[in-house]
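[job 0417] fold request received: UDP-N-acetylmuramate--L-alanine ligase
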Amino acid sequence: MTLLNPIEVIPATEVGPVHFIAIGGSGMSGIAHLYADLGVPTSGSDRSDSSTLASLRRAGITCHVGHDAAQLGDARTVVISSAIREDNPELMEARRRGLRVWHRSAALAALMVGKRGVSVAGTHGKTTTTAMTAIMLSEAGADPSYVIGGPLSTTGASSAIGQGEAFVVEADESDGSFLQYPTEIAVITNIEADHLVNWGTPEAYARGFRDFATQSCVKWVVINVDDPGSRALADELAAEGRQVIRYGEADDADVRITDVRPAGNGVTATLTHGDDSGPITLQVPGNHNLANASAAYAVGRILGLGHDAAVEALGRFEGTLRRFQLITDTAGIRVYDDYAHHPTEIRAALTAARRATEAGNEATGLPGRLIACFQPHLYSRTVDFADEFGEVMTLADIAVINDVCGAREDPIPGVTGELVVEAAKRHGAREVVYVVEKYDLPDALNEIARPGDLIITLGCGDVTIVGPLLAPLLAQRPEAEAR
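[job 0417] inference complete; emitting structure tokens
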């Protein structure tokens, strides 16, 4: 996979019948929904059936299982992701026919034409910040359009077409997609090297964010000044006279968070912006979520929301799926699932999980432990960050490591989950267990866990299946029957 070059697009209503290859993906499915909502004949295919395909069919989208050239039908535009290989039979047929072939970022950019584009980029926190911004604007009556990389926990939807002027998108930097969107407000949550298989060096990766922030269409840059990478860019942009809104806990933040403290399962703090100052309380935990909310707040103010309206609307945000999502609380054992797959994201998730574990210990009087179940994602990322993964696993009382989920990559000899196991041991992890097969994880976790423990599954691959498979095993315990 290589970096994408932005292309000219036409409005989505003019693309004719459109066919999505790998339509069941988290990014593709939301975009496909919106094309269908606009009345564009929409179809797609994926390698296996899923609940996502079932949802798309209910929306009137023709979905095929498996890939076959005949499934293109009368499509005039074919949409692909970076994971689609050139030997895919549908892509080969599209090229043979001379059809318009767009990366999904171009298909999304076409939807944004004529709207005020809000693009949320960053190494971490994109999905939650995009979702917070979309929910804040919706709850405040601004009726935005949006496409988020993960479904909202309240609706299960990841996209919507609204009648308001704002179109909020999660802007992926991994393949350069974030340079494709017509962005008026650029949000940068942080900049920390990732996806080096595409970018080559940390310096090139950081330059990509500078390119994103300095596009001719960008009028405002909302940027985190608690993160060293994004702070450096904020200072550069401000020195050039660009319109920058800084957010975070730093003294010089324009949208500043202070007095942070837990509030039930969430968090509360004081948010200050100019002469406006007051409490903000979120239903989701962690300082990182306060940072995400600060970015969303800044966007809301640019788009005309008042202080009180923005803060109150953010307080109604209930999260997205796979972001510290509670799967079950059975037999005195809580099981959460989180998409975190970079060391910094895992650190934030485990810090929040530790606080939740301690709060549970105080409430029940049980000496509960924090059990982290981590599945490394991508062989290239495991090579780049094996040592950092091992170090962050020391935040858990017990680290259960799965083998690498290769996803779109071919295996690299010698690169397995054992690299993380060895690193965790070197860094002094309390207890490390290696479980190669993901379907063995539920039994292993059931064997390890005891009442009062908190288990969190971590990774952006198929480790998400573990919590639902573990739940019925916990339900069979005597402790569950006694409740």
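[job 0417] notes: Residues 18-102 form a domain with the Rossmann fold fold (CATH 3.40.50.720). The chain is about 35% helix and 20% strand.
[job 0417] exit 0
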